[in-house]
């Protein structure tokens, strides 16, 4: 079988990461350019073009298409990105149309969390699954729903926003303007802030020692390290995190009758203890016939998941 190649573009608030990826999901070349988001959309689009141009040099004939994973809601028709968070001044940008006209190469644009779900479908843990729910745990909580081997996009491309399920209607205010969203418990910053708060009552936690008593450097990784060293406090944090996520996911499972859950992103590094907790939590809340069917899997696209997910859009249609 002849190997096919695509360019994957992971558009982030500070960096644009780009790579040439094979149809098996292997990165053969990778670069990154600053997004220069504060200089406005035109500058950032110029940066994207610059990155693509440099990857195409001498390789253009090999490239089957370009895939872009972008924050914000995306309308497929012109690859229109709408109000991406972290990219000030964007409003509506026909990014797909702009890039395909510039390079005369078919270009696919999709929301980054949806692209991560398609990446798992084409190259990763979802390869042999008919349907699954994908959750990405990072600064925010992203989601994507694959139903019958297709991404469920909703009417406007905004479906799958699992991070914004309300799990406490009296809860903290979320970035989205709503209250008590799942993201206000699981997003990196919220999580770190909450753990710092709880540490005040848990002075015997190993975390203090690992950080030389400087909690400013608290991160999910430190919580993970402490849990591996047997720190009960950190182990409880991870178990509670899994429980909270499971409560939100149980609603999604009940609505869609999809029993496979794939978890990716930095916080997924908590590994088995997190996944077991999610599984038990989902099982405790879904309707009885679904309980024995629940599976929680780790995402396979780890490093460069953004580039790989974006490139998979080319091999998806
Ligand atoms: Zn929200």
List keywords for this structure.
five-stranded mixed β-sheet, binds zinc ion, Nucleotidyltransferase, domain 5, 37% helix, 317 residues, 13 strands, 10 helices
Give the gist of this structure:
This protein has about 325 residues and is of the alpha/beta class. The protein contains 10 helices and 13 strands.
Describe this entry's structure for a reader.
- The protein is an alpha/beta fold.
- The chain contains ten helices and 13 strands.
- The protein has helices at 41-56, 95-103, 112-122, 183-186, 188-199, 206-210, 220-228, 232-256, 272-285, 305-316, and strands at 5-11, 15-22, 27-34, 63-70, 73-75, 80-82, 92-94, 107-111, 132-137, 141-147, 150-151, 260-264, 295-298.
- It has a five-stranded mixed β-sheet with strand order 3-2-1-4-8. A five-stranded mixed β-sheet has the order 11-10-9-12-13, with helices on both faces. The chain has a three-stranded antiparallel β-sheet with strand order 5-6-7.
- Strand 1 (5-11) and strand 2 (15-22) form a beta hairpin.
- Helix 3 (112-122) packs across helix 10, helix 7 packs across helix 8 and helix 8 packs across helix 9 (272-285).
- The radius of gyration is 20 Å and the shape is globular.
- The two termini are 19 Å apart.
- 44% of the residues are buried.
- Zinc ion (ZN) binds at residues 164, 174, 176, 178, 181, 183.
Gyration radius from CA atoms, angstroms: 20 Å
Q: What are the bound molecules?
A: zinc ion
Broad structural category: alpha/beta
Number of strands: 13
Strand arrangement, largest sheet?
Answer: 3-2-1-4-8
Uncertain segments are: none
């Amino acid at each position: 079988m002849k190997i096919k190649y695509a360019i994957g573009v992971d558009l982030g608030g500070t960096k644009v990461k780009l790579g040439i990826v094979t149809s098996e999901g292997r990165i053969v070349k990778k670069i990154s350019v600053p997004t220069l988001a504060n200089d406005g959309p035109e500058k950032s689009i110029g940066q994207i073009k610059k990155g693509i141009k440099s990857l195409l040099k001498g390789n253009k004939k090999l490239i089957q298409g370009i895939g872009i994973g972008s924050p914000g809601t995306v309308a497929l028709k012109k690859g229109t990105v709408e109000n991406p968070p972290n990219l000030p001044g964007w409003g509506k940008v026909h990014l797909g149309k702009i890039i395909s006209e510039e390079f005369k190469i078919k270009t696919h644009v999709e929301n980054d969390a949806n692209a991560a779900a398609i990446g798992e479908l084409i190259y990763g843990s979802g390869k042999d699954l008919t349907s699954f729910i994908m959750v990405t745990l990072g600064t925010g909580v992203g989601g994507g729903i694959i139903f019958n081997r297709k991404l469920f996009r909703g009417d406007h491309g905004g479906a799958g926003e699992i991070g914004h399920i309300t799990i406490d209607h009296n809860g903290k205010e979320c970035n989205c303007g709503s209250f008590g969203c799942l993201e206000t418990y699981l997003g990196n910053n919220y999580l770190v802030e909450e753990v710092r708060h709880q540490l005040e009552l848990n002075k015997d936690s190993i975390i203090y020692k690992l950080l030389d008593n400087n909690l400013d450097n608290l991160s999910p990784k430190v919580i993970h390290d402490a849990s591996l060293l047997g720190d009960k406090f950190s182990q409880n944090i991870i178990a509670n995190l899994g429980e909270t996520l499971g409560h939100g996911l149980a609603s999604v499972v009940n609505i869609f009758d999809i029993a496979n859950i794939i978890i990716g992103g930095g916080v997924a590094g908590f590994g088995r203890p997190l996944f077991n907790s999610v599984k038990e939590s989902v099982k405790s809340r879904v309707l009885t016939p679904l309980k024995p069917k629940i599976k929680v899997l780790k995402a396979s696209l780890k490093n460069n998941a953004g580039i790989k997910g974006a490139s998979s859009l080319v091999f998806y249609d």
